[in-house]
Every structure is written in structure tokens, then in C-alpha cells.
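Notes continue from the previous slide.

Worked example: a multi-chain complex. Inputs as given:
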Amino acid sequence: MKPSVFAGPEGHPFHPFVVPLPIGAFVSSLIFDILTRTRADGLPYLVDAAFWLIGVGLIGALIAAVFGVLDLVAIPRGTPPFTTAVTHLMLNVAAAVLFIIGYAWRAGDHVELDQTRWGQLALSAVAVGVLIAAVWFGQTLTYHYGRRVTGRTDDGRASD
Amino acid sequence: MDVNPLTRAAEHIENMKALDAPAMAVQRAARAVFGRGRVRQVLAGEPIGHPLHPALVGVPIGAWVSASLLDVTGADEDAARRLVGFGVLAAVPTAASGAHDWLATEGAERRDGFVHALLNDLALGLYVASWLARRKSRRARGAALALAGSGVLGGGAWLGGHLVYSRGVGVSGRDKLR
């Protein structure tokens, strides 16, 4: 099946091009959380920035999801790459839900905090872990099954 | 010929034989640095079973783009500087793993990868300059350097995507394509 034109031209899918923004924003947010914990008096501006970065990550994730779903629907149902793609999607949804919970939690208290709460930090750490697993399944689609790679058939083999 | 000007640019680079001499000289020098052993295996992504470089690129790119977003919204000077700095640190293992993957390439892919690395190294230099400007509290200059960096980085990323999705670099069993 040919993917939608909105998923990017042959040999240049849009999904992998937009995923760096949410990945970098979420990882940076977690790094900032950790930094606020390295000083006894905290770093209030990084507590704010960590909250803001989760927001950026969620917007970026929504954009990435649109292009990702366009690539997903072009995979024949019931095939191994389809199962991998659904797993990739589910893990990303799980990570996004964890970050949405974290965002809502922080929205109430990030202004008055000097350090990110341990619970908020732990939630983000788990979410980043889930995100890394999601990235791994996404890589399986590209590097194992050859999805969206020029000259690959639907079952991942090189076409003659 | 492809209608997309960016794809045409990538194909133009693939045919630039003048790049071969400097690219091969850099490859020879880099091979001596990387050697063999555990570090090389990790850079290749052997523990995860996939190339490591594309898994890492999101971290510096996302940190840097987020820094520019902070600049545009005018908020939090110190957080923007920290983001640029974190991106620079994250770029080091990203570049090392990318350099490792490039060592195995030749011909058109070596040329594409060489220019991909040059653009990304230039972007890295612009972000280092941006961080230095921000440390001297010259935010406008730091923001401008970061924006320039993101433009160059976008070009480098396009070529990286071209290498994987148009040429199949790093995709398993791709030798059958030849």
C-alpha cells in the first residue's frame, strides 16, 4: 500500500523528521528536573522550564502522531510490521498520557516550587523510559522492516 | 529527475566526486581513533540491535529547537542557555555514533554522509557560539546564532533522512538492493 502524500514523499517520510522535537523536549525536561535537585536551594526557573518543556513535547508529540498514523495505516493489517507499529503507537500513547498527568500535576504548583517534586520527577523518568521503548519499536520499523525505505516491499524485503 | 529541490540537492551531492579525497582522508583518520572493541560496538548500537545514531539525534535537536522557542516567547533567559548547553553535550555522543556509521560507507553515501556531518558540525559550532554569547548575557546574539544553527541543522537532518529512507543506510539486508 502506498502511504498518503501527506505522510511525505517517497524516500522522505515526515514522521521521523518531526519526532526529534518531542523527544528532545521531554528528555530536556527530565534533565532540568534532575538539575533542580542538585542544589539545596533549588533552581526555580528550571522548575518552570521543565513544566513548559512538557507542554512543548506534548504539542510536538501530537504533530508526530498525525504523520505516524498516516504511515501506520499504509501497513497491511495482521503482518509483523503492523503489530510492531501498533506496539510503537501504544507505547507512545502511554508515554504521552504519563506526561499529560505530569503536566496537570505541575500546572498547580510549579510557580511556587524551587525544586521539582520527587513524584513528578519519577513520573517523568518512567515516561521517558516508555518513550525510549517506543523509539526502539519505531527503529525496528525502519531498520528491520524497511518501512518507508525506498525499494522495500510491504513485507520488508528488497524488491527486485 | 526528482521534482523536489531538496532531493535534487542530495542527488547533486551524491555525484560530487571532488568530495572523495577529503572524505577518505577523514575516514582514514577516524578509523585510527575508533579502533575496535566495546566502544565501537556501543557506538554502532549493537546492544540495542539498531543503529544508535538515529536514536540519539532527537535529544540535541529537540533541546535546541526548544531553546529557540523559549527565545521567541521571550521567557526565561537562563533556561534557554541551559537548553543550548545540554544540546551541545548531547551532540557529542550523537556525532561519535554518526561518525562510526559513516566509516562503513563509500561512494555516493560517503559523500552524502560527509556533507551531513559538515552541516551538523557547523550547526554545533553555531550553538557553541550561541551558548558563549548567552553566558555573556547577550541574548539577542545568542538567539540569532541559535536560529542560524537550526537552519543548518535542518539541512543536515534532511540529508540524514535521505541516507536512511532513500538509500537504506543501516537498514537490515539492504545489500540485496544492490
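Summary box: The longest helix of chain B spans residues 107-135. The mean pLDDT of chain B is 91.
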